[in-house]
């Protein structure tokens, strides 16, 4: 009945060696701390960082925390509607090893018709071997976007239609499997349908 823990809970990043004493502050590097601290609460509710926890977000962001870039990417792209800044931060998140950042960056690139580059970032998730990582990322991304009121961009409809045309084999199966382009169309379609549902 309960949802998978990997969907509801972002993994908490352990900071430092678990064997070290809590009283040992000899390795208390401020930049390392803010780069590695888990922002799972805020990744699930990014609007909380829009105003309430701005200074904390900035400290994490300046230290290169990939979750902070993910949150900033969401806020820039979907709240402030700054596509360039949003995509920049999502790429930083992905390049920092945050898989939800890779997923949302790839998906966002598909949505703005940068299909080849979007496919490259979605491919990092190893969907050809197993879709479980992609599916879990999608569930967490949806949770992150739940608090964003309306973020449907008319260009997303056009991108979906153009990707469907490029795909051409979306409904045809090859040996029981959807072709590669069908996977990208399916993911973009999920995103567009979710964004449209936010309007209702």
TrEMBL record:
Residues 51-145 form the At2g35280-like TPR domain. InterPro entries: At1g67623-like, At2g35280_TPR_dom. It comes from the Eukaryota. Pfam families: TPR_27. PANTHER family: DUF1985 DOMAIN-CONTAINING PROTEIN, OS05G0482100 PROTEIN. This is F-box protein At2g35280-like.
């Amino acid at each position: 009945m309960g949802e998978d823990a990997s969907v509801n809970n972002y993994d908490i990043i352990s900071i430092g060696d678990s064997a070290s004493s809590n009283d040992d502050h000899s390795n208390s590097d401020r930049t390392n701390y803010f780069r590695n601290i888990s922002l799972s609460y805020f990744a699930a509710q990014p609007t909380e960082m829009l105003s309430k926890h701005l200074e904390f977000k900035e400290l994490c962001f300046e230290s290169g925390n990939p979750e902070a870039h993910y949150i900033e990417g969401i806020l820039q792209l979907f709240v402030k509607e700054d596509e360039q800044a949003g995509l920049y931060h999502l790429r930083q998140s992905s390049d920092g090893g945050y898989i939800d950042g890779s997923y949302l960056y790839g998906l966002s690139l598909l949505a703005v018709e940068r299909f080849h580059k979007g496919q490259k970032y979605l491919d990092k998730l190893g969907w050809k071997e197993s879709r479980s990582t992609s599916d879990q990322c999608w569930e967490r991304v949806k949770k992150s976007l739940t608090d964003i009121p309306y973020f449907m961009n008319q260009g997303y409809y056009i991108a979906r239609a153009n990707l469907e045309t490029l795909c051409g084999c979306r409904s045809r199966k090859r040996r029981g499997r959807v072709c590669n382009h069908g996977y990208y169309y399916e993911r973009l379609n999920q995103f567009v349908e979710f964004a449209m549902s936010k309007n209702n």
